[in-house]
Amino acid sequence: MHYKVILRILGILLMIFSFSMLPPLAISYIYNDGADFAFIAGFFITLVTGFLIWIPVYRVRQDLRTRDGFLITVLFWAVLGFFGAFPFMITEDPHLSFVDAVFESLSGLTTTGATVITGIDYLPKSILFYRQQLQWLGGMGIIVLAVAILPMLGIGGMQLYRAEIPGPVKDSKLTPRITETAKALWYIYLSLTIVCGVGYWLAGMDVFDAVSHSFSTVAIGGFSTHDASIGYFDSLTIELICVFFMVVSTVNFGLHFFAWRQRSISHYFKDPEFKFYISTLLGITLIALIVLIVTNTYEPAESLRKATFMVVSIATTSGFATADFAHWPAMLPFLLFVATFAGGCAGSTGGGMKVIRVLLILKQGYREIQRLVHPNAIIPVKLGKKPISDRVLEAVWGFFSVYMIVFVVMLVALLATGLDQVTAWSAVGATLNNLGPGLGNVSAHYGNLNEPAKWVLCFAMLLGRLEVFTLLVLFTPIFWKR
Amino acid sequence: MHYKVILRILGILLMIFSFSMLPPLAISYIYNDGADFAFIAGFFITLVTGFLIWIPVYRVRQDLRTRDGFLITVLFWAVLGFFGAFPFMITEDPHLSFVDAVFESLSGLTTTGATVITGIDYLPKSILFYRQQLQWLGGMGIIVLAVAILPMLGIGGMQLYRAEIPGPVKDSKLTPRITETAKALWYIYLSLTIVCGVGYWLAGMDVFDAVSHSFSTVAIGGFSTHDASIGYFDSLTIELICVFFMVVSTVNFGLHFFAWRQRSISHYFKDPEFKFYISTLLGITLIALIVLIVTNTYEPAESLRKATFMVVSIATTSGFATADFAHWPAMLPFLLFVATFAGGCAGSTGGGMKVIRVLLILKQGYREIQRLVHPNAIIPVKLGKKPISDRVLEAVWGFFSVYMIVFVVMLVALLATGLDQVTAWSAVGATLNNLGPGLGNVSAHYGNLNEPAKWVLCFAMLLGRLEVFTLLVLFTPIFWKR
Ligand SMILES: [K+]
Ligand SMILES: [K+]
């Protein structure tokens, strides 16, 4: 491990991150909301710490290797989550405890959107803006993580996409090509944010809300500046804009990149993951619509509106709300949660296991059945027309089972802290899948949970965002050997 | 498909099965419990139907092929479950509805042990005996199914054991070798039953209870002749005998076979599945013990006694009770249920996914993590010292994911009928894993569920017992395609 270079990167990262305290500080002055000190303090704490970490090692130059990549990636989210918590602890309102502040900060940066705060409408504007901005920055990190970094580490959905052998690139150095890719992706991300924000504003949000919600929409974050979330605006137009951008932001950014370069959209409809994703969203919306109408939960038109918004919001792992879906009838809360486990497409800001993995699991499950009938046939698993290599499939299986095992272990841990089953399983699901809202006692917020439970869920958010393996590998002896 | 031969086998099967109504009939006369007509009617209905099916095709002789094997295996349990239901419908007490009778009968034959009946202590002796006997016969079928038939169909844990390529035996005919293997296994099964029954009797049960409980113990069935289950006897000796035989009956019968032939027991401790199984049982017992003591649920000595019995009973998928574990504190109910998903060893009467599959999943999950650290290393998954072929591993993955998918789909179905989440998930888990008792509203019995829910659970019991694939394959078009 090249600890010195890692420290150098970490120092630089912190110094850069410290500047993210300045926009909220400006907001604080504009609205004169009294939270300015929190951001001044947060800025200096982060900047100085970063500087102190950086200065002893600033001359060190070494090529990074794959193994360093794991550590840097985990530290990126963990350390920023920690320093991002300062404003929440320092400000008068909300004067959060250490665990709550870290929870809120990590929830923002991982774009989970689970909150421990109630009375969001009454928070200082700057704190509100800061929460939204955390999500937006987190989303930016995720795009690069998903499209550029994880594939290099041999993890994640994108290498499935290319149907190549997973594993790091040949020379296992983190090449400067990242910068290039990252730039293009950020342009797309920024453009989406701007278009989304302008849309919100034209649809009737004030500028502050429009910017804030555009941040959390494209990041698939789900934080809002109102307790009632998107439901606060009670506007069909706003909901449709939100639905559109939630879907767009959970589609593989590689497809957007191609669309941007080639001025074409036909490739979307040739992509197996995209097709499966859209079909699933439509299918679940239809089921929800039927159940809501049959059970007289809402009028038919209202059912369509609520079903569309909530299914998209939960299935994309956004977590915005226009209805209390946790109390919808029959299997709907559970069904929407199941969709969350699939989550968004690979290479997007969405959470969950990623659609492409679920698609491959279904295909291989079906292949096993076919093999029983035709035991001697050689049946490849295909994506579109490309057969998928066994090595890639093994990675998918490995991911699926480790995801399930991690889910069960954390569920046991939460139950051990005394939570009821519905609260516990949905809390783990909502954090591991980076969704946000759960069922039971965490359907509105996570403030009432005990402290150990909150720490477990912080870990779950990190695990989910880092596609489990990136974080888990740090807990194995072989990672640290030699 | 060779339908005529299949019908011939089915006819013979029914005629043989009809004779299983005679022992309960004898019991009915001995105790003069008034249920005699139910068994006379059941006997003739089953015998005559079997005869009528058999007579038009009794001359047909054709070699069966793998595909026929699937259909016969599924029909075996489904048809016997159906005809086994007659006595429950005909008798005055309990005068069960159609769905309840089928549920009870299938629950017996699949050795699930979930019951819709309350007031078991007051049932006619013959009905009690019949229920226990259903489980014992079911267990007999399972041993042959697991050790001889499923491997031929390319399903199940036993072929993993041999670490050979799964898939049917070379010429894909169902050879008469089954008879030979079956005979040896039944000797072992019968011997275990006798020793267990004598043990119960010596420990203080009356002859009727001793025989009845020996039936359901070695079959890992869990039916009892008392509402309070094994707790009724309040005897440490009986509990220890029960624990011993629950463990023995969930160990691979192949190991017992070897022990019988070679007069040796050392091979048990060289078997990776056995070692992992025993360690897991001990580990979970220890956790349960600590939690029960720390939470002051029982006195320490009582905690040890209850923890040992209940962990073994639930983890082996037996489902006997000496305590209401569904209301044990913290994560214990959930943790015991997780163990149920692993279930017994391959080639035993236990339910669940089978220990060996879980072991291989854990090993391969860990391999995926190793591969991240050493991307170019070739790391085989080993069982003991034998590397496991990719084809076998794929079968395990396929099983695991299909099991999970089936679990989720049936859970959605149950929730759609209006059950609460805890009742629903535990009911699916308890039936799919052939455990018996669930949590929530099904912790005592299944009588209060609605009819659609009961049908779904009947299907779950069958799916679980037939290792999912055997039944699922019948629902694919390719199975029926010439
Ligand atoms: K989210
Ligand atoms: K059972």
TrEMBL record, chains A, B:
Official protein name in the record: Trk system potassium uptake protein
The keyword NADP is annotated on this UniProt entry: no
Protein family membership: Belongs to the TrkH potassium transport family.
InterPro entries named in the record: Cat_transpt (IPR003445), TrkH (IPR004772)
Keyword Transcription: no
Subcellular location: Cell inner membrane
Any matching Pfam family: TrkH
Entry's transmembrane regions: 12-31, 37-58, 70-90, 136-163, 184-203, 240-260, 276-295, 334-362, 395-416, 453-480
Sorted UniProt keywords: Cell inner membrane, Cell membrane, Ion transport, Membrane, Potassium, Potassium transport, Transmembrane, Transmembrane helix, Transport
Protein topology in the membrane: Multi-pass membrane protein
